């Protein structure tokens, strides 16, 4: 069944190419098409395009189909082009002519738009929850390990003293920036496009404000062409939000891969969270973090893919937009998986405590040592040169009693302030 079928037929090869894997991807959207269809049926009843009894029958049948979706028994067989045609078929099968009335005053275009935007709203909130959980764990780890020294690096060379508290909380606070992008994506998605039909509205006296309230949108996309032009933009906004989280999570995964190596040996994990080698019995490989890193890199490419797909398209609907789903929906699943696995593994991290005392890291204390000279009255540039001379002559004696107390430093992590900042960021 095709919603656009006028009695003719298309070649099987054309069907296969144009439908693609939409049937599988549309299972993500099924609950949201049902939610939108219920709102649409209620509105049709209110404005008199169908009777109150017909509206009630449609709502009851849609709720029943929704139950089948939840139970996993809802299928989109090869006879159907997409989720929208399958649901309309079921309504017609169960309600006769009443089922055929559900499509009045809407197009498949705005059905896709509204179902996708409802789905993306929930997906964004789910990703936000996963991000908050990882944030909370990072703050707990920062508090637990705040006094353990960790070498800080610039240019992949030992630079200055850091700490595990500083390292964990740095990624926690970075996630707040990522949540700001999620909020922006949520606001873009939180505009009801239903009623735009094929992109030019309808001559039916529909009530778009009613459907906006029924579906829980905070506002609607007023201009019907603008509503259609939102397709692609909502997906890209969501992808940008995910890509910033992926940047943070992927970078931490890279740190972990380096820190687990025998040369650094800053951290370790239980055997159950690592893998081995087929010929080297000593290996404990960070495969999970390498895959998180790789998946996060893939996610960071999604905005570019969506941008190329939609580049230079004029206003109005184009079939190119169908491919948005096959790029974005798997990326959402991978983002959720990366957040879940990072949290699952990171809770068992074991930071080591001996780095600060290891002589090979003595050089990282040079700045603290020369700062002591400055505090004793020597001009900074003279202290810098004197310290350089001591290091060159192998006479340098590191000052290891650190005193970093300014806001945001290793001695003043401001974890409570960072927590409040995240709570405010997540208030959407």
Descriptive notes:
The chain is mainly α. Helices cover 59% and strands 5% of the residues. Strand 1 and strand 2 form a beta hairpin. The longest helix has 37 residues. The model has no long low-confidence stretch (mean pLDDT 93).
- Reading off the top of the CATH hierarchy, the class of the largest domain is best stated as Mainly Alpha
CATH H-level superfamily of the largest domain: Fumarase/aspartase (Central domain)
**Domains (count):** 3
- By CATH, the architecture of the largest domain is named Up-down Bundle
Helix content: 55-70%
Number of H- or I-type helical stretches:
16
Task: Write out the strand line-up for the largest beta sheet, numbering strands in chain order.
Answer: 1-2
The tally of strands reads 6
Distance between the termini: 40 Å
- Give the percentage of residues in beta strands: under 5%
Structural class: mainly alpha
What's the average pLDDT?
A: 93
- Could you give the order of the helices and strands? HHHHHHHEEHEHEHHEHHEHHH
- Rg: 28 Å
Describe the global form.
elongated
CATH domain fold name of the largest domain: Fumarase C, Chain A, domain 2
- What are the segments in which pLDDT stays under 50 over at least 5 consecutive residues? none
What summary fits the major beta sheet?
Answer: 2 strands, antiparallel
Counting copies of identical and different chains, the oligomeric state is: single chain
């Amino acid at each position: 069944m095709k919603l656009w079928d006028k009695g003719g037929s298309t070649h099987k090869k054309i069907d296969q190419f144009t439908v693609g894997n939409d049937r599988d991807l549309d299972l993500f959207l099924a609950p949201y098409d049902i939610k939108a269809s219920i709102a649409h049926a209620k509105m049709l009843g209110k404005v008199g395009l169908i009777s109150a009894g017909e509206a009630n029958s449609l709502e009851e049948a849609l709720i029943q189909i929704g139950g089948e979706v939840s139970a996993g028994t809802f299928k989109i067989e090869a006879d159907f082009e997409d989720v929208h045609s399958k649901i309309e078929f079921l309504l017609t099968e169960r309600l006769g002519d009443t089922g055929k009335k559900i499509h009045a005053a809407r197009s498949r275009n705005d059905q896709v738009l509204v179902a996708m935007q409802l789905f993306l709203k929930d997906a964004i909130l789910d990703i936000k929850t996963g991000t908050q959980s990882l944030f909370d764990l990072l703050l707990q780890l920062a508090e637990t390990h705040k006094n353990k020294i960790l070498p800080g690096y610039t240019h992949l060379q030992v630079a200055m003293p850091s700490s595990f508290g500083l390292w964990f909380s740095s990624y926690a606070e970075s996630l707040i920036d990522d949540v700001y992008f999620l909020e922006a994506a949520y606001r873009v998605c939180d505009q009801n496009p239903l009623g735009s039909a094929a992109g030019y509205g309808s001559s039916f006296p529909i009530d778009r404000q009613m459907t906006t309230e029924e579906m829980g949108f905070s506002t609607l996309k007023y201009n019907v062409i603008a509503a259609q032009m939102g397709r692609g933009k909502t997906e890209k906004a969501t992808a940008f939000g995910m890509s910033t989280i992926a940047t943070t999570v992927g970078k931490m995964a890279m740190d972990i891969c380096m820190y687990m190596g025998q040369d650094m040996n800053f951290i370790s994990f239980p055997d159950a969270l690592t893998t081995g080698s087929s010929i080297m019995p000593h290996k404990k490989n960070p495969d999970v973090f390498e895959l998180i890193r790789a998946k996060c890199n893939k996610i960071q490419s999604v905005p570019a893919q969506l941008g190329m797909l939609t580049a230079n398209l004029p206003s109005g609907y184009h079939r190119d937009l169908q491919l948005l789903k096959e790029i974005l929906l798997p990326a959402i699943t991978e983002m959720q998986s990366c957040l879940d696995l990072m949290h699952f593994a990171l809770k068992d991290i074991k930071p080591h405590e001996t780095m600060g005392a290891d002589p090979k890291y003595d050089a990282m204390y040079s700045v603290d040592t020369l700062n002591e000279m400055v505090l004793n009255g020597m001009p900074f540039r003279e202290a810098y040169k004197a310290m350089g001379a001591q290091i060159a002559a192998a006479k340098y004696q590191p000052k290891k009693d650190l005193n970093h107390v300014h806001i945001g430093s290793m001695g003043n992590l401001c974890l409570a302030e960072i927590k409040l900042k995240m709570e405010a960021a997540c208030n959407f």
